[in-house]
Design a protein that fits this description.
Elements lengths: L3 H5 L2 H4 L4 E3 L12 H7 L5 E6 L8 H15 L3 E6 L21 H15 L11 E5 L1 H4 L4 H8 L4 H5 L4 H6 L6 H17 L3 E5 L3 H13 L6 E5 L25 H8 L7 H8 L11 H17 L1 H19 L9 E3 L7 E2 H8 L5 H9 L3 E3 L2 E2 L6 E2 L9 E4 L3 E6 L1
Parallel strand pairs: 2-3, 2-5, 3-4, 5-6, 7-13
Antiparallel strand pairs: 1-6, 8-11, 9-10, 9-12, 12-13
Helix pairs in contact: 10-11, 12-14, 12-15, 13-14, 14-15, 16-17
Length: about 400
């Protein structure tokens, strides 16, 4: 239900939003756009966000639509989180160059619980009427062959091949399996089943959200609006945040690891990170980029671990940097020349060759045990590889609390 606060301030709606579609009245909604539906509705709107728990970890990039969902909750609307326990068995083909592995029902169930646990710091789970958690197997598993045939009949092969990824795979003569065509139709049918007013998603989800509108129209329902959010660039400042690329900050990471990564975010990304991952006033940020980095790190770590843990992480990170710049005797930290290393090289090899570890095998074990840090960031990937010395020159490599070297070319 609309409040007077909403009527005068919809900044929360537009903050970090890439696109709202349709952005003006159309044939399905001839008398309204999304703002009008928000302000004129006599009931809380139903805001849909679907997740396919195909893994176990959520990173900050994934958190963006959930933060927007929380903004809708705080404005008085109902968040409808759909756990794609049925669609996850297919896997969203968006942006994929090959078919995704189909998960078992048990794998999806276990992943879904880890997702919900990680979302507790973001969403309002406690206020009655503000959150519904649905599993799309509730309705999708009940569709019979005739109903599935009806769904398939709402879209042509040409329309489906316009979907991101499909056209590229088709042109490259890579296989596209028929069950993959079901994914956008089933995700769209979710909107029919829960009678969504708005569906949230990344900019790569526009096709799927549009299918939901089409199916709502086909089944005689009021059509939803789509609200698209940016894809977050990772900590490398180049590619989208991804666990496979190692440029991510996971929601389950410890406070120190989160802080150490976030205080090094490239200057060019600071505005986007503040806008998308915090509620801070963007006009009141420090002018000094270094102070902005620290503020960003404290703000985000506080969201997931509390303010006290964030401040402790800041203090610990500063101590690590101080120790990295002086040895136990007060002398400059020892340097190790990377000219002795043949690149590309794995970090565990550098650990052994530099003498920080007794051997490459010991280096692997130290990484697995969480004892290795690079410029304060804990390293967990035992196969971390550097293509050239430029990638790590000038950084401090640390094993345990007392062994440090500075890598130089």
């Amino acid at each position: 239900m609309s409040s007077s606060k909403q009527a005068h301030n919809l900044d929360w709606l537009y903050r970090g939003t890439s696109e709202i579609f349709p952005d003006r009245p159309d044939s399905e909604n001839p008398n309204e756009n999304l703002v009008q539906r928000i302000l004129q509705s006599d009931r809380p709107l139903r805001i849909k966000l679907g997740i396919d728990p195909t893994g176990t970890e959520i990173h900050l990039g994934h958190s963006i639509p959930f933060r927007k969902l929380r903004a809708f909750q705080d404005a008085g609307h109902t968040a409808v989180v759909i756990i794609g326990d049925f669609t996850a068995r297919i896997g969203d083909p968006t942006g994929k160059s090959e078919v995704r592995r189909q998960l078992t029902a048990e794998e999806v169930k276990q992943n879904a619980q880890t997702y919900l646990d990680q979302l507790r710091p973001i969403l309002d789970f406690d206020t009655p009427g503000r959150l519904e958690i649905c599993y799309n197997s509730e309705w999708l598993s009940k569709l019979d062959l005739a109903q599935i045939q009806e769904l398939l009949a709402t879209m042509t092969v040409g329309q489906m091949l316009a979907k991101e990824g499909f056209a590229e795979r088709f042109s490259q003569e890579q296989p596209i399996y028929l069950h993959e065509f079901l994914y956008p139709l089933m995700q769209g049918y979710d909107s029919v089943a829960i009678e969504a007013d708005v569906e949230l998603g990344g900019t790569d989800q526009k096709f799927n959200i549009a299918v939901g509108r089409d199916l709502q129209r086909y089944f005689g329902k009021k059509t939803q609006f789509g609200l698209l959010l940016p894809i977050l660039i990772g900590t490398d400042g180049v590619q989208k945040m991804s666990k496979s690329l190692g440029n991510y900050v996971g929601l389950r990471e410890d406070a120190l690891s989160m802080y150490s990564k976030l205080e090094k975010i490239p200057d060019v990304l600071l505005k986007d990170y503040f806008e998308l991952l915090t509620d801070l006033d963007l006009t009141q940020l420090p002018n000094n980029p270094r102070e902005c980095q620290k503020l960003l790190a404290i703000e985000i770590v506080s969201q997931y671990h509390g303010k006290e843990a964030a401040l402790q992480a800041k203090q610990t990170a500063e101590q690590i940097v101080l120790k990295a710049n002086t040895s136990a005797t007060g002398d400059a930290v020892p340097e190790y020349s990377l000219s002795q290393i043949e690149f590309p090289a794995k970090l565990f090899y550098i650990l052994g060759a530099s003498g920080l570890c007794s051997s490459s095998g010991d280096g692997r074990r130290q990484i697995q045990g969480g004892a290795v840090r690079l410029d304060g960031d804990r390293i967990t990937d035992i196969n971390l590889t550097f293509d050239s010395p430029d990638q790590i020159a000038g950084k401090v490599l640390q094993v345990g609390k007392k062994k440090f070297i500075r890598l130089v070319q």
